[in-house]
Each structure stands twice: as structure tokens, then as C-alpha cells.
Amino acid sequence: MQRAASQGYAIELGVIQNSGGLQGQVILGFSHARRGKQDFRDQVELVADDLAGLLKSTALTRQLTHIRSHLSLVHRLGQQVTSMDERAALLAEITRLVSDALGYEHIQLLLTEEESRRVELVHASGPFAETLMASGFSETVGRGIIGRVAETGRMWICQDVTRDHHFVSNAILPHTASELALPLRLGQRVIGVLDIQSDRSNAFRDDDVFLLQTIADQIAPVIEQHRLLAAERRQRRLADTLADVSRIISSRLEANHVLEAVIRELGRVVPYNGCRVTLLGEDGRMRVVAAKGYPDNAKVKHHSFLAREAPLSAPVMQLQRTLIIDDVRKEREWVWQPGTEQIVAWCSAPLVHGTECIGWLCLDWPEAGFFTAEHGRIVRAFADQAVIAIENARLFERARELSDILEYKVNDRTRLLREANDEIARKADELQALWRRVVDVQERERQRIAYDLHDSVAQSILASTYQLQGIRRRIGDNPDLDRRLIECQAMLDATLGEMKQIIYALRPNVLDELGLVAALENYVGALPSTDGLVTQLTIEGTPAPLKPEVELAVFRIVQETCQNCLRHAAARNLSLKLSYSDPNIEIVIADNGIGFVVDEARLGLGLVGIRERMHLVGGQLYIDSAPEAGTRIQFFIPRSNCSP
After folding, report:
1. What pTM did the predictor assign?
2. Out of 18, 47, 332, 401, which residue is the most buried by the measure of CB atoms under 10 Å away?
3. In a 3-state reduction of DSSP, which class is residue 189?
4. 595: alpha, beta or left, given left = phi > 0 and alpha = psi -120 to 50?
5. How many CA atoms lie within 13 A of 270 on its CB side?
6. Same domain for 151 and 296?
7. Distance, CA of 410 to CA of 110 (rounded, Å)
8. 240 in a domain, yes or no?
């Protein structure tokens, strides 16, 4: 300005400003001319106004471009997050879009774990992202900038971390100069934090902060929706797995198969390196009955121990609680079982049947802090299914043992019954053979007696009759003596008649000479007709010769039946029907006498003899009688047993 003034220029200064305040200054130099100072002032102000307008237009254009890029980011973010199903891909896309649009050095997404009251890192972008993710970064709710945002639900902006005592440095991010943390809110609930860090102070412009809060508000429901969908999928997978386990339990009852299936299906919903089922035996010792995932499963199953020898089993067995140990190496009471040296993290759920704990289902992982409360809940659900399977298997084994015992007893009893039946059959055969011999002896004895009576007594009576006749001719006229001789001769004639009937009853010659029909006609015709008894014999069909033993059996049965009728029935009518038909020979004897109760007469010798004679010729006998209802005796003999 001094050099311009020394060269003869007039200097004039103008201020560039707009509604936002002072923008700058413009200086103009005018050559000496005959113009007034006001003209110079007007020209400077005109140039200043033009520059102010240009600057304002440029700023508006730049702001419009920035807003357009923000809107484009929000639009693209909305399109991406609503179309992704996988949570990891969703979180990665959110951090990528924010990083590409705004260019901040480090962006991280953290979600709140309400049970542990911690904010867990779920995704990060930037040069240190992999290292940060590998470290498993998390922050306690209420501690540091991230923790306070998770606790209060209010945005926190720190343009210079050296002046903010809430800032907590991270060795993995040593160059952080400014930090912006925005809450991910759903109503009044904070589900996480979107945290952005920069290695430059005053890195966050107002419009960028507004955009980031808009993004946070937009992605919060999407993340929650994904969380709910993931939880729903986990629950559905758990339900499907439990349904499969239930199906397996109901389809197979062998203990080994069912327990192996439970362990196998558990791996679908909870990862594990090793899994065991330990049961309390009747002797009070704990035994591993199923194991998977160990270097030597047989070695693990071979070991047994007392519950008091494993102190950590008390919460499971006595209190029936699910127990999770982050690192068994730090537990003083932990007891290593043979073959389980791989265990670091451990989760165990009790097997509760009714009110009694019968063992536990446990699984392990070779890294510390692996199992969560959710894992414990799932393992407990499987334990509840497993105890049903175990009890069903135990009942099945007991039922099978009882079935084997019963089968053995049944087989033994069947053997004894079979032996007894064989003995009875043998005795029956012997009895039948004995009865045949008795019948044969009876018939031979009857025949002998009949022959003896015929040859001796009958002949003697006949000779006596002839002698009486000779005496009558010699004594002449003696009426009294003649009368007495006539009476004596009549007596002998009657005795001879009775003797002939006895001889016929003992052995009817007509049966041997003329056959069954003639013998029956002769016998029925000779029955005494005292008390007005009317007898009737009916023959149906064409008579045919039968085996001698069959004809004799039929005749004897008829004979015995008729004698019983004469002695006991007090009947007025007695009918006998003999039918020759196929496939049986049928004989029916009926009377209208007083009858009897069949059950009370089963042991009578007459009926026993009738039954035995019928069995000897392979026939069947039926007796129908009742008091005051007469008696009907019917028997059948197969024609195949009758033909000579």
C-alpha cells in the first residue's frame, strides 16, 4: 500500500461481509485522476458486494453438494441395511458407507449387553480394525465416552480429547485426537453406540454430526430387527432341534443310541469341543455313560468317582443349577477327570427327574470365557430332554429285563406244562390201553361165564326138568305130589329163562351172528314192559357191518343206558334211534323220566364207562338232562373208525 501510494495511487479498502459476518477485505488502488473520493468508495463497495455474493454462492453450492452427498449416503444406507439378512454383512456395510462418505480414520459399532452391562465391539473399520476386533474390545456401561453414551443415551462430541477427562485412551488407537459417540436408540432404550475417532482435532463439522445422528437413528431399528430375527432363528433352530431330539427319544429306547443322539443334536445349537453325560449309579458313584469329542472317549467313560470327590458338582447336583466356568484353570476346586485335559471353558446343566438330580450334561471348549448365559439356557433345555430319554431308556431296560425274566419263567412253565401234558397224554394212553384191556378182560370173562353158565348151570337145570318129567310119569295118580312137581318144574323153567337172559346179557350171540341191528332189536324187544314202559327202536339209513369192537361198544352203551333208565328214570317212554349216514354213525337214546343234574353225575361209574367206551372207538358223547325234563344221550362215531 505504501509502494502504491509512493507511485501516485489512491488506496481504498472495502469490507466483504454477509449475513454470517465478516468474510474478508478487498483493497483497490486508483491512479490519480480528477475523480472524487466518493467515487473510489462506491467502486470499492461495489467490488466488495460482488465478491461477497460470489463467496456466498460458492458456499451455498458447496453446502448443497455436501447435503446431496449426505442424502445419497442416507439413501444408499437405507437400501443396503434393509436388504441384508446376515448381521456381519450388515454391520460391515454400515461402517464402510460411513467411512467412504465422511472419510474418518476409525469407525466402530458397539452393542449393549444388558445382562453384563457392557458395550461389546461388533464391527470396526479403519487401519486398526482387525487388531481391535481380535482383541475383543468392550467397555463398561458408564465408563469413558462410549460407556457414558450407552448409559445416558445422549450424543457426546469431543473435538480435543486432551481436554476431556472422560476420554479413555486405547493402546490400539494411539493417535486419536477427537471422538464422536452417538447412541443407537429405540425409544428410551440404548441398544448400542456408533463411535467415530479421528487423528485430527476439531474433525467433526455440525452438518456431519447431524448426518451421523440421522444414520444412527436409521440403523438402530435395523440392527434391533436383525437381532430379533437372529434370536427368532436361534429359537426356531433350538425348537427344531428339541423336536428332533423328542422324535429320536420316542422312536428309539436304547440308552446308548438315545444319549448319543442327544449329544449329537446339541452340537447343532451350542458349539462344543467335548460333551459328556454323567449319571449317578445305584452304588452312589458317578459314571460317564456317553462322551464325544475327547481324544479317547472310552477312557473318559471308563472312569467313575464319588460326587464329593468333585466339589464343583455340588451346585449342579444339590442346588440343581446350571454352572458356567469361564476358565477351569483358575478354579482351585476343579478336579481333572482322566481324558479331559482339553477343558478350559465348562458348562454343566443338571439332569433333574422329578425332584431328584440323577446326574449332569456338560460340555467344554478349549478357550476361556466361551460359554454365555444363553448357552447355559440351551444346555439346560437339552438336559431336560435328555433326562426324559434316560428315564425312558431305564424303564425300557427294566421292562426288557422283566420281559426276559417273564419269558424265562413262561418258557420254564411252558416246559413244565408240556412235560406235564406229555405225562398226562402218556398216562391217558396208558389208561386207555388199560381200559381196553379191562374191557377185553371183561368181555372175555363175560364170555367165559356165559359159556360156563350155558354148559353147566343151564344144562343142569334142563336135566333137572327132564328128571321131574320122568318122576311125574312114575308116581301115577297123586294130585298133591303132581301139583308140587309141576310147580317145581315151572320154577326150573323160569330159572332157565332168566339164566338164558343172563347169558345173553353177558354175551349176545346174535351180535356175533346177525350184527348190531338184530342185536339191538332183540335186546330192546326183550326189555321188561313193567309199569307200562313203551320202547321204540328206529333205524335210519342203510345198515352196514361195522368193526366188531365198534358194534360191541355201541351195544354195551345202549345196554348200560337202557338199564339206567329202567333202574332210575321212572320213564314211560324210551326211544332209540340208529342212523347210518356220512360222515358219522349216530345213536340217540331218549326217555321222559325224572332226569338228573349232569354235573352231579359226572363221576358215576356208568357214565364213566360209557364215555371211556366211546373214546376207545374215537367217538364223541353228549349228555343232555335236567330234573323232570328227561334224559337224552347222543353219540357220534366217524364212519372212518367203523368200517371193518
Report:
1. 0.43
2. 47
3. strand
4. left
5. 29
6. no
7. 72
8. no
